[in-house]
C-alpha cells in the first residue's frame, strides 16, 4: 500500500529524533574500550585487590592494594596540570587522574599486610572501612586520614560490606578465614553477632540492594547463602541443581505441576549438602534491580540466580576460567544488561540473560582482580596485579552515530 | 536402531547442522517409535533453528534441538565392548553440536523434568554429567531383571526392580535421592496410596548390588547410576589425557581435524571422534577454520 507523504514525513521525523536514553546508554556500554579521555594514575606499588566507587555521586574511587596502600581517585575531575608540562604517557585531550590521597606505610595507622577490601561509608565519603590480611578491620576518617575505630579478628579478612539501603543500622559485615561471618558495629565499637552456617572461609559477600537486613555470602565450600541478620540461621542456600522450571510461561498448568512434583528430590536435599558451585565461590553480586544475583566460582562457572524463586536461572557463560586464591570482583551493568567477568588478564563482557560473549577487554598485563562499573558515565574501572587501574569508556564518536536515512524516504517531487 | 553409515562427510559432525541431526532422529523414529507420544507436550516454541526448511505437517513430531543432538550422539556411540555398556552422552558433547549453551542447558532441564532423558552424575569425573534416554534405561533394567531371574534370586526381592521402574523413576528426576525418599516412593502404588508390599533392606541392597544406585559421599543418600558405566568413565579419563598429550607434545599444540581423526587412540575404546567432541564442548580444544580445512587447537588457560 503506498504510504501517504504525510506518513513518510512523520516517520522520517521520528527516526531522526534521538534514540531514547536507554538505547543511547546501551550503545555506549557495548562499545567500551580503553578510555581516550581519562587516565587514572595509580599510586599503588602492589597489585590492586579491590575497587569501589562511592554510591552517592559515583565520583570517588577507592582502591586497595597488596602493598598495604589504600588510595582514592576523583574520576570526574582530573588533576589540574601545570601549564607547559605534559605527562609522557597521557595523550592530548586526556585528563589525568592522580590519587587524592594515599594511605601507605608512611602513615602510622596503616595496615601491615595486604589490604583485601576497602569500602566507603554509604552515607557520605567522610569515612571508609578497610580489611586486610593482618587480621584487622580499620575504620578511617577521610579528612584526617587516621583510624577512628578498629576491630581485631582471629583470622585474615577477605571481604567487607556495608549496606547501601540501611537506615536502621550501619553494620559492617566481615568475611574472613573462618566460617562465621561477623557483623561489626562502628557506632558501638563492638561485634554484634556472627552468622553461623558456612563450613569454610568466606571469600565474598554483598548486602542485598532491596533489603537492609539481608546479606548474601559465598564461601570456599561452594555454598552461597542469603541471611536475614535479625534471625539465626540462613534464609536460603542456593543449589545449582534447583532450577524451578515449573514456572515457565507458556507451559500448561498440568506440566507445571508435574515438573514441580518430579523435582521434589532436588527441593528436598538437605541444606548442608547443597552447593552453588563445585569449587570455592569468589564473587557474589546482585543486579541493581535486585531481581537476580550473579555468582562466580573456581569451578570456572558463573551462575545467574533468580532471587524471586531462589533458583538457578540456567544461563551458561562459556569459558569463564577462574583459578582465584581469594575473592575477585565481578561487575554488572544494568544498561545493556552486561556482566563483566575478569578472566586472567582480560575482562569478558557477557550478555547477562543470554550468556553470549559480547567482547573481550584487553589492556592489563597481569591478572585482573577488581572491577567496578560507573552507571552515571557508563565507564568501567579495573585493577590488576600489574598495579595499574585502567578506565574503560565509550569512544568519543559513539554518541554521534546517526543512522542515515535510506533513499526510499527521499522526497520524490518532480521538478 | 538404524546404524549410521560410516562414510559421512566429517565436517558435518562438528557443524551446527541441526537438520542433519533431526533427519537422523526421524530415521530412528520409524523403527523404534522412541518418542511417539513425546512431542505432544512440547510447546510450539521449540522448533529447530532452520525452521523454514521444515515441512508444516511435521512440526508436532520433531524433537527439539537438544533432543535431536542427544539422539544423534547416541547413534554414534562406538560398539564392540566386551560387556553390556550403556550408550551415554556427555553434556560437553552436546555443547559441541548446538552452539547456544544457555538453550542447551534449559532444554536439557525440561527434557529431564518431562522424563524423556535421565541425568547421571559420573563420580570421579570433574564435571561429568551424562544423559541417557529413558527408554534405554528401561531396557537396561529389563535386561537386569532377566539376568537376575536366571541367577535365581527370590521373586519378591526381584519385584523391587519393577517398582523402581514404575514408581521411583517417573517421579524422581534428580541425580540423587535420600534413603527415606526411596523407601517412600517404592511403597506407593499408582494411585498414591500405600501398597501392601513392604520394602526391606534386602530390596535396597539388590538395587545397590545390581548397580542402579550407588552410595553418595554424603551419608544416607544414593546417587542414581547406570550399571557398567565404569569402562566408560575410565575410557574418558584416559582418552582425554592421551589426546591432549598427543597435541601438546608437538611444537604447536594444534592439528588438522582430518589428520587427527585418522589417528587411533590406544588407551580408550571410545574412539577419537568421541573424545574430540567431548573436549571441544568442554572448552579444552578450539576449532578454527583455515584455508586448508578445520584445525583443532588446545586452548591456553590464563
What can you see in these coordinates?
The complex is a heterodimer of chains A (415) and B (302). Chain A is mainly beta and 415 residues long. Chain A is built from four helices and 30 strands. Chain A has helices at residues 5-16, 21-30, 253-262, 264-267, and strands spanning 33-34, 38-40, 48-53, 60-65, 70-74, 95-97, 99-103, 115-120, 127-132, 136-141, 146-152, 157-162, 172-176, 181-185, 190-195, 202-207, 214-219, 224-228, 234-237, 281-286, 292-297, 301-306, 311-312, 331-333, 338-343, 346-351, 357-362, 368-374, 379-384, 389-393. In chain A, the strands form eight sheets. A four-stranded antiparallel beta sheet of chain A has the order 1-30-29-28, with no helix packed on it. Chain A is globular and about 90 Å long. Residues 247-252 and 402-406 of chain A have low confidence and may be disordered. Chain B has three domains: 3-95, no CATH class; 134-224, Alpha-Beta Complex (Phenol Hydroxylase P2 Protein); 230-298, Arc Repressor Mutant, subunit A. Chain B has helices at 11-14, 18-32, 65-75, 91-97, 101-113, 134-151, 155-171, 179-186, 201-210, 230-248, 257-262, 272-282; strands spanning 89-90, 117-121, 129-133, 176-178, 213-215, 221-224, 254-256, 285-290, 293-298. Residues 7-18 and 28-54 of chain B have low confidence and may be disordered. In chain B, a hairpin with a 7-residue loop joins strand 2 and strand 3 (129-133). Chain B is α+β, with helices and mostly antiparallel strands. Chain B contains twelve helices and nine strands. A three-stranded antiparallel beta sheet of chain B has the order 1-3-2. Helices cover 46% and strands 12% of the residues of chain B. The chains are: A mainly beta (415), B alpha+beta (302). The interface between A and B is medium-sized, with 37 and 32 residues.
